[in-house]
From TrEMBL, chain A:
Entry GO CC: cell division site; plasma membrane
Subcellular location(s) per record: Cell membrane
Domain FtsX extracellular, residue spans: 55-150
InterPro entries tied to this protein: ABC3_permease_C, FtsX, FtsX_ECD
Protein name: Cell division protein FtsX
Membrane topology annotation: Multi-pass membrane protein
Keyword terms of this UniProt record: Cell cycle, Cell division, Cell membrane, Membrane, Transmembrane, Transmembrane helix
Pfam families listed in its UniProt record: FtsX, FtsX_ECD
From TrEMBL, chain B:
Family: Belongs to the ABC transporter superfamily.
Physiological role: Part of the ABC transporter FtsEX involved in cellular division. Important for assembly or stability of the septal ring.
Gene Ontology CC: plasma membrane
GO function term, MF aspect, one: ATP hydrolysis activity
Superkingdom, taxonomy of origin: Bacteria
Protein known as: Cell division ATP-binding protein FtsE
ABC transporter domain span: 35-270
Keyword match Cell division: yes
Species, as recorded: Desulfocicer vacuolatum DSM 3385
Entry keyword Transport: yes
Record GO biological process: cell division
Keywords: ATP-binding, Cell cycle, Cell division, Nucleotide-binding, Transport
SMART domains in UniProt: AAA (SM00382)
Length: 290, 272
């Protein structure tokens, strides 16, 4: 095995330009496909948040007292699609607000009377997965006793949902096309590089080398180039991602849609694995047609 | 050339020289055949490169295949190590019927044959040492043995100082020496040489010829395709076949046939 590795490394050293071209092609392919996966993962994550259930805030009127809580809760639970209800008293809400505003230096101590209402935080069931269903719930909840106003807190995200879903589908289709294109381009580049070695392969066979002896170093070379190309593509993608994320103002990252994250570890492993597969495939096709 | 045309040639079989007249057959029977061709033809498109060749080569023989360019000398050698498949007929090399040889077995056939290619076939980005050691690496020899054997053949061919050089930096003659070294490094049973001294000056050609003859003395069968009469003259031969347009020439059709007593379409002898 050591001699195979040695020959694979020697081959690459002897054909620096071809090796670099192959590596660059694989890196580029991985970069393009990886960018799509990055988008896809973030879109899927957002969709996942959405699917965990929408939170609706029901502000209660001034006549509400904690004694009414059980009745109001029961009433709201009778509406289909409620997963959970949490009561947030006006005092707790004020404390939370004070905490949130601390960083900006605003103080609420001069406020006097607490202007915030008692609130019921309603978590809807994921089965309410369309805008119409959510809106119907909000309308129904708004008509219940002591409920002054129902705020559909993620309403603006809901506006994005169809777009996110469309983009997700689009990303899958485009990503698939890019992956296929990347596959062909990379495999073809490896093949072209391989043709330069045809004479060497012929000579090896003529002097009594077995197919395993001839092929193994080329497979190792392809796998190594695939691994390096995949890794390089991923590193470039990471720096591009950092650049894009750096350009987003920190406050905006509080908005869920702007809170983009880099690829998960399994996805990174999958991408590097895809690079390795590309390198191997190029060799496989070339050796089979040789 | 004058010697070649001398009618008082002698036969050389196992270094025994006797007068040719009426005695050749007896010596031929003493050794078993290592190469046999039965009605072999090789066709490229509509034309025949070789047609109806039947011949046999005995163990340890030095065999010359002569003929004009395009007569089929190289094709004949190519068939013996399966560089190209035969179109018709049967070839047996070292007891292996090449028509029935599975692809997995071909490398094992080739390891028994050292080939000196006319165009050298050296890997340009590998050093002289690596080009030669490739044969032993492919045969799975340990590194220490490889080093010892390669250094030995490099020394014998006078190429030690070029062991780290790349083939393109060498002259044609030096490349040919590397090709010879590679052909013999695996101690093959058979050496096939296609114009082995074609690119060499007289002195280098002599070195290489002597070197090849040492292998013959060890019992290696050597087939040389050449139209170099000086080479034939200098080494002598056990058998000489002459090809004309892909067919073995009949007695009396060529100079070699004219120079020696004939057995069928082969000529046995040595220039005295």
């Amino acid at each position: 095995m050591r001699s195979y590795v040695k020959r694979a490394l020697e081959n690459m050293a002897a054909n620096v330009f071809l090796t670099a071209t192959t590596l660059f092609t694989i890196a580029l392919s991985v970069l393009i496909a990886g960018a799509f996966f990055l988008f896809f993962e973030n879109a899927a994550r957002l969709a996942g948040d959405w699917n965990r259930g929408i939170r609706v805030m029901a502000y209660l009127d001034e006549r509400f007292t904690p004694r009414d809580l059980a009745g109001v809760t029961r009433d709201l639970r009778s509406i289909e699609g409620v997963k959970d209800i949490r009561f947030v008293s006006k005092e707790t809400a004020l404390e939370q607000l004070q905490k949130d505003l601390e960083s900006s230096g605003v103080t609420l101590s001069d406020l006097g009377e607490n202007p915030l209402p008692h609130t019921l935080e309603i978590l809807l069931s994921p089965s309410l997965d369309t805008l119409d269903a959510v809106e119907a719930f909000v309308e129904s909840a708004g008509q219940r006793a002591h409920v002054k106003e129902v705020v559909y807190g993620h309403g603006w995200v809901a506006a994005f949902l169809p777009m996110v879903n469309t983009l997700k589908t689009g990303a899958l289709v485009l990503g698939g096309l890019f992956v296929i294109t990347a596959l062909f381009v990379s495999a073809n580049t490896v093949r072209l590089a391989f043709y330069a070695k045809q004479e060497e392969i012929e000579i090896m066979r003529l002097v009594g080398a077995t197919e395993a002896f001839v092929n193994t170093p080329f497979y190792l070379e392809g796998i190594f180039q695939g691994f390096c190309g995949g890794s390089v593509g991923l590193v470039i993608l990471f720096f591009l991602f950092q650049g894009i994320r750096g350009a987003i103002p920190p406050e905006a990252s509080l908005v869920p849609l702007m809170d983009i994250q880099f690829l998960s570890f399994p996805m990174m492993a999958l991408i590097v694995g895809a690079g390795i597969f590309l390198g191997w495939l190029g060799c496989f096709i070339s050796l089979k047609s040789n | 050339m004058a010697a070649l045309l001398d009618n008082t040639c002698h036969i050389s079989v196992n270094s025994t020289y006797v007068n040719v007249e009426g005695r050749t057959e007896k010596f031929m029977e003493r050794k078993r055949s290592i190469i046999q061709l039965f009605d072999v033809s090789k066709q490229y498109g509509a034309g025949y490169a070789l047609k109806n060749i039947t011949l046999s080569v005995k163990v340890g023989d030095l065999v010359f295949i002569t003929g004009a360019s395009g007569a089929g000398k190289s094709t004949l050698l190519n068939l013996l190590y399966l560089a190209t498949p035969v179109t018709r007929g049967q070839i047996i090399v070292g007891g292996m019927n090449l028509a029935r040889l599975s692809p997995e077995k071909i490398p094992y056939l080739r390891r028994r044959i050292g080939v000196i290619f006319q165009d050298f076939k050296l890997i340009s980005h590998r050093s002289v040492f690596d080009n030669i050691s490739l044969v032993l690496e492919a045969a799975g020899q340990p590194p220490a043995v490889i080093k010892k054997k390669v250094e030995e053949v490099l020394e014998r061919t006078g190429m030690t100082e070029y062991m780290n050089a790349l083939p393109p930096s060498l002259s044609g003659g030096q490349q040919q020496k590397v090709a010879v070294a590679r052909a013999v490094v695996g101690d093959p049973d058979i050496i096939l040489a296609d114009e082995p001294t074609g690119s060499l000056d007289a002195c280098s050609a002599e070195v290489i010829t002597r070197y090849l003859m040492e292998y013959k003395e060890k019992g290696t069968t050597i087939l040389i395709a050449s139209h170099n009469t000086a080479l034939i003259n200098s080494t002598g031969f056990d058998v000489l076949y002459t090809l004309e347009a892909g067919q073995l020439a009949q007695p009396g059709e060529n100079i070699c046939a004219a120079m020696n007593p004939i057995m069928g379409n082969e000529t046995r002898g040595r220039v005295s």
